[in-house]
Amino acid sequence: MTSQIPALIIVVPLLAALVVSLAAWIRQSLCFAAALCAVLAAWISAILVMGRVINQGVITYRMAGWAPPWGISWHIDHLNAVVLILIATVALINLIATRSTAAREFEDRPGVFYALYLLFVTGLMGIVITGDIFNLYVLLEIASLSGYVLLGMGSGRAAVSSLSYLFIGTIGASLYLFGAGYLYIATGSLNMADIAAILPTIEQTGPIQASFILCLIGLFMKMAFFPLHTWLPNAYTHAPNSSASLIAPLTTKVMIYVMIRIILFVYQPDFAFAQMGIDRFIVWLAVIAILAGSLLAWKQERLKRMLAYIIVSEVGYMVGGFWLGNTAGMTGAVLHILNDAMMTLCLFLAAGALISRVQADAFGALQGVFTKMPFSMIAFVAGARSIIGVPPTCGFFSKWYLISGGMEAGHYAFVAALIISSLVNVLLFFRVIEIGYFEPFDSHHPENGQTTREAPLDMLVPLLVTAGLLIVMGFYANTLVTWIVKPAISAATMGGL
Amino acid sequence: MIAVVSAKPLIAVLVSLAVIPVLISARKPNVREIWTFAAALIKFGIIASMVPAILAGHTLEFTIAPLFAGIAFKLKVDAFGLLFALVASFLWIVTSAYSIGYMRGLDEHSQTRYYCFFAAALSATIGVAFSANLLTLYIFYEILSLSTYPLVTHHQDREARSSGRKYLLYIMGGSIGLVLPAMIAIYLIAGSLDFAAGGILAGSIGALPAAALLLMLVFGFSKAGIMPVHAWLPAAMVAPTPVSALLHAVAVVKVGAFSVFRVITEIFGPGMLLNFGFDTLLCIIAAVTILGSSLIALSQDNLKRRLAFSTIGQLSYIILGAALLTQSGMAGGMLHIAMHAFGKITLFFCAGAIMVAAGVKNISEMKGLGRQMPVTMAAFFIGALSVIGLPPCGGFISKWYLAIGTIEAGQFLMLAVLLASSLLNAAYFLPIVYRAFFCSPDEVTFEPRIKEAPGWCLAPPVATAAISVILFFYPQPFFNLSQLAVSRILGG
C-alpha cells in the first residue's frame, strides 16, 4: 500500500477539490474541514515519500502501471521530495492561518476558494513530482489558472492585475510548450529520463539549443525574473490576502525548481553550462535582478508591494546562485528555495495579520503596531531578519552558500549584489519597523490608553510557528544540506562540477 | 591542555534568555526585578565556577549543532573568554541594582521590555566570549546588535530614532558589509574558522589579500569603535544610562574589541602579522583612534558624550595591546577589558546618578556639585583615576603592561602615544572633579537643595569604584587568566 503513496499526493487534493465544491452546497463550513483533511493528507504523504527516498533512493512511480514513455510516470528524488514537503507545509500553514480572512474575503463562496486552493496545490505538487515534460505543462496550467482566479478575486484592481498576470503567464507557458515541442521533435520522447538518455546521442544541436532557450525564457517569465517581473507586484498587491500568502511563497519558487529540474535532469549540466555558454551572462542578469528588485522595493509605500519587489530580488538570488554552476552556488539556490518560501510565507502572513487589524498596509497606517500587535510584529521581525540574512535565521545559511559560490566562481559582482541587497533589506525593513515602533511620537509614556488588539489566535499561532520554523531551519540547515540538497545535486552532476 | 565537554558554557549563555518569559509574565515590578537578579547571580555563579578548571589549563567545550562542513555552532571556554565573561556577568549584577534605582527614579516607560532585552543582550555577550569559532562569534554578535537596538532607542522619540538609525547603519553595515564576506573568504581559503593559537591563515594567503581581509574585519566589527567607524557610540548615548553603562562601556563595545582581538591573535596569528609587518599598521590605526577620540572628548560638554569618546579611545588600547603581539602587550590589552570596565562603568553610574538627583547632563552645569553629592563625585574621581591609569586604581595595572609591551615590541612611538593619551584623559576628567568641589558659590547653576541620589543609584558606583581600587592591589584573578591566555597564543 505504501508504494501507492506518491499517487495520493496528487489524487487526494484533486478529488478533494471536487468534494469541496459539492460540500459547499450542503454546508459552507464543511469546505474548510474538507480542504484541511486533504492538505493534511498530502502533507503526511509528502513526508512519507521523503522517508522512502532517503531510505531507498529514487522512486519511479507509474500511474496505473503504464510503462513510460507512454504512461504517466512520477519521478521522485531528494530534490522534488523536499519541494513537495515545502508546498504541503506552506499550504497547510496558510490554510489554517487564513481561515478567518478567507471567510471574510470570500464570504459568499468559500467552496470556490477552497476548491481553487486545492487545485492550485495539486498543480504545484504535480509540477514537482512529474517525470514528463508535457505533463509538466498541463499541471503548470492547472496551477496557473487556479492561481489567476485566486488572485483575481480580490477587490478593486485585483481583476485587472490578475489579467495582466494571465497574459504574461500564458505567454511564458506557451514558450515553455514550444520548447518542449522542439525537444519532442528532436528526441521523440516526452519522458525526462528518456530525453536525458537520448540527448547526448544527437549530433545536430540547433533545435535543442532553441528549445532550451524557449523553455528558459518561458520559465523566467513565470518566475518573475527581472525584467520579466512586471506582472508580479500588481498581482500580489491587489490580491486577497488569503490567496497572496499562498501564491507568493510558492509560485516563483516552484518555477525555479522547474528550471533546476530541466537543466539538471533533462538537458543536463554539460549541455546547459559548457555547450550553451550563457551561464555568466545569466548570472549578470541575476545581479541586475537583485539590485533592481531591491531598489524598486525601496520606492514602495505599501507593505505588500514592498514584499512583492523583495521577491523579485530574491528570484535573482536563486537564479544567479544556480547559474554559478558550482556546488556551493547550487546548494545555496536549492536551500534558498526552501528558506525563501518560508520567509515569504512568514512575512505575507504577518502582513495579513496587520491588515486584518489596521485595515490597510500603507506604511502610514502601521504607526504604533508594536504596541498594538506585539506578537505579530515579533514574527514580522523574524521574517525580516531572515530576509536580511541575520543568523541564526535560515536566510543567513542559504546566503552563505550563495556568497561562497560567487567567490569560488570568481563572480564578485554577484557577491557584491548579495551584500548590497542585504544592506538594502536592512533599510527596507527598519523603515517599517521604525514606523511601527516609534510613531506616533509622544504616545509612549505611561499608559496612553491604547487597547491591545492582537490578531486572532488562529492567525497568530500559525504565524508564530512559521517564524519559529525560520530559526529551526537555520539550525538544521546543515542537516538539510547533507541529507537532502547534496544528494539532489550530486545525483545530477555525479559530483563532477 | 585538556578539552572537557561541558554544558556549563551553554547554560551560562542561556540562563538570561530563559528568564525572559518569566519577566514578561511577572505582573509586579518587584517580582520581575527579583528574577533579573536571580538570572544575573546564577549566570555569574556558573561562569565563576568554571575558573578552577580553566586555571588548571583545561578548556570547556560544547558543540550545539554543525553549521557547515568543518564549522559547528560551538562554545569553548578558554582563559581570555572567561576573563571577559567574568567581567560582563559580574557587572550585570551591579547594573541590575542600578537599573532599579534609575528606571524607577526617572519613571521610565516599558520597563519590562527593557529588562527582557537587557537579559538577551547579556546572553549574546557571554555567547561571544565563549565562541569557539568566528562564525559562532558572528551569530552572537548579530544577536547582540539587534537586542540592543530597542535599548538604545528606549525613549522612542525622534532623537532615539535618529540615533537608532546611526547605530544600525554602523553596526549592521559593518557586520554584513565587511565581516560576512571576509569571513566567508577566510573559510574558503583556510577551510576552517576555528580560533586557534597561531592563527589559521598562515602560509595560505598573500600579503595584499591578507591586508584586505584584516582591515575588513577590524573595521567591520564596528562595535570596537575604531575611527572612523566610531560615530554610533556617541549617538547611542541617548539610551537610558544603565544601558550606556553596561552595554556601551562594557558589554557591547568590548564585544567589538574582543572580536578584533580574537581575529588578530587567533585567525591571523602573531607570526603572520609580524611577517607582513601588519603589527605596525594595526598600531597606527589604534593610535589614531586613541589620540583622536581623546581630543574630541576634550570639547564635549555633555557628560555622557565625553564618556563615550573616552570609551572609544580606551577600546583602542585593547586593540593596541593585541597589535603589539608581545607577552606584556597582549596581557595588558586583555587586562584593560576588565580594568577599564570597572572604571568606566563607575563614571557612567555617576553620570546617571547626577541625572536622577540633579537632572543635569552637561558638565558646565556641574560646578559645585561635589558639595551636594560628595559620595557620587568621590566615586567619579576614583573611576576617572582608573581610566587615566593612575595608582591606586586597576587602570594603572593594564596601562603599565601595555607600556611594557610597547618597549618589548620596540614601538617607542606607541609608548609616547600612551603617555600623551593619559595626559589627555586627565585633562578631560580632572577638571570636572575639580570644579565640582572647588568653585565659588556664585558659579553654581543648579538648584541648591539637591541631595545624593537614592541608594539603588548610589551603591553601585561606590561598589565598582571600590573594586577598581581593590583591583590595583589584587589583580590576580584577571592577571592569571590573561597570562594563561597569552602564553597559549604565543605558545601555539
Can I get a quick summary?
Chain A has 497 residues and is mainly alpha-helical.
Detailed description of the structure:
Helix content of chain A is 77%, strand content 2%. Chain A is an all-alpha fold and 497 residues long. Chain A has a two-stranded antiparallel sheet with strand order 1-2. The longest helix of chain A is centred in the last third of the chain and has 32 residues, at 327-358. The mean pLDDT of chain A is 86. Chain B is mostly helical. Chain B has a domain at 277-492. Helices cover 74% and strands 4% of the residues of chain B. Chain B is built from 21 helices and three strands. Chain B has a three-stranded mixed beta sheet. The termini of chain B are close together. Classes of the chains: A mainly alpha (497), B mainly alpha (492). At the A-B interface, helix 18, helix 19 and helix 21 of A face strand 2, helix 7 and helix 8 of B.
Task: Spell out the blueprint of helices and strands.
The complex is a heterodimer of chains A (497) and B (492).
Chain A: H1 5-26, H2 29-56, E1 59-62, E2 73-76, H3 78-97, H4 99-105, H5 110-129, H6 133-152, H7 158-187, H8 192-198, H9 206-223, H10 231-238, H11 241-267, H12 269-275, H13 279-298, H14 303-323, H15 327-358, H16 369-372, H17 374-388, H18 394-408, H19 412-438, H20 457-475, H21 477-493
Antiparallel strand pairs in A: 1-2
Chain B: E1 3-5, H1 8-18, H2 20-25, H3 29-49, H4 51-55, E2 59-68, E3 71-77, H5 79-105, H6 111-129, H7 134-152, H8 158-190, H9 207-220, H10 232-235, H11 241-268, H12 270-276, H13 278-298, H14 303-324, H15 327-358, H16 369-372, H17 374-388, H18 394-409, H19 412-437, H20 455-473, H21 476-491
Parallel strand pairs in B: 1-2
Antiparallel strand pairs in B: 2-3
Helix pairs in contact in B: 1-3, 1-6, 3-5, 5-6, 5-11, 5-15, 5-20, 5-21, 6-7, 6-11, 7-8, 7-11, 8-9, 9-11, 11-12, 11-14, 11-15, 13-14, 13-19, 14-15, 14-18, 14-19, 15-17, 15-18, 15-20, 15-21, 17-19, 17-20, 18-19, 18-20
